[in-house]
Please model this.
Amino acid sequence: MLGWGRLLFFITLVFTLLMSAVNAEERQFNLGRLASKEEIKGWDIDVRPDGVGAPPGIGNSFDGEEVYAERCAGCHGDFGEGVDRWPELIGGEDTLDGHDPLKTTSSYWPYASTLYDYIYRAMPFGEAQSLTYDETYQIVAYLLYMGDIIDEEFQVSDKNIGKIVMPNRDGFILPDPRPDTGKINIDPCMKDCEAYSNIIGRARELDVTPEDEG
Model:
């Protein structure tokens, strides 16, 4: 027979488990509490390629040049050329198919909305999310203007950020080389399959390994 102390312990344990089960039904995964709308809004700041999610705002290259000079040029240079080892932002349009591609906002990035998303989310370095909506649009406009993508009077806003055509917009969409692509009811090989391989290129020698015979 169980002593009264041990019996009381088991009764308390069962009661606690039952109450936990009831509370778990009221809280998803039984973790914390539901986030408020304001808390969700603070995290939900992504901007899709088509511009959905872009906050209300507007900016042009005239205003953007001033904001860029104050908040960005210290690292990226007055004209996006990069300072020391900080990234270059402009140029490289004819380098993507070479051995040493220069991937910048004007040569590589496929969507103008990605510029807004990243700049507002992560820049300036060490002061992320300190820019206003309008300041971010102004910087985007200045970068696009320096990259000859828009003219200097173009007003970049939440209404058109997803419609701006970037030079490399189609560079991320390549035809699928697999022979069964687009065919219907193809039974995939699951055993003793013949592997097709075709060497179309080799890595170039970078010649960076020291060859000190001593």
The first helix runs from residue 4 to 26. Strands lie at 58-59, 156-157.
